[in-house]
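Bumping with the actual sequence this time:
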Amino acid sequence: MLEPWAWRYHAWKKRPAWWLWQHRDLCGAAVLRATAQQEVEALRALGFRRPIALIPNGVELPEIRDTKRYSDFSVSEFQLSAFSPSEVRGQKSAVRTALFLSRIHPKKGLLNLVTAWSQVRPSGWRVVVCGPDECGHAEQVKRAVAEAGLSGEFDFKSSVYGAEKEALYANADLFVLPTFSENFGIVVAEALAAGVPVITTTGTPWKELHTRQCGWWIDIGVEPLAAAIREATSLPDQERHEMGQRGRRLVMEKYSWSQIGKDMLSVYEWMLGTGPTPECIA
């Protein structure tokens, strides 16, 4: 909630809580924990001088099947609904899926996605929007989809968990999070862990999408988003697959729970005076 965009959104409700108790509580912490460098910078910009432990969030690495777009394994009724009839018969589908999985909230940039998609209209692609509705924003997005004549290209689903969530990632060809602000963006890491290339914005701390060649890290707005969608959907399947595999390797190297657990333990030991200053302390 201390990221610049979130800080400005409904500020009239947040500022009283900030001055009454939240600022005091944070100032009393021995160490603050940030999940990305831009979160460190946001905390420093608000005047915090306490040590900050820079430790990202972690994700589980799902099993990856080389035949993820084929149905040579048992799937639930929900999972079957995510596949086209040709895929259920074991044939590769001509329809590709761009997945959005997050809260349906104005912050997430879904209206930009609708506008950008209407400009590109990639042939043989659909968008799956999945997540809990907040502030009644889902109806606003659905109206925008209908007004743009995209009803046949957008599919809306409610919240999913566990195996159902894994099935959505497994059947996605592209993940899109056109958000205005994220302190970390756990769904980006989840998509990469599933071997799916990602489009997201500089409102997230995911510059590694660019440096590790596993996605698109773009400016916030319709035009940059449309350009990224156009490029991503025009790539051969094999190139998107290779991008996804680079993303999975990134998660294995940096966002696995084993490494994050070691970093957290080193911070606790340092706080208790039983260990040296960890490298993750900023």
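The tokens above came from a reply further down the thread. The longest strand covers residues 96-101.
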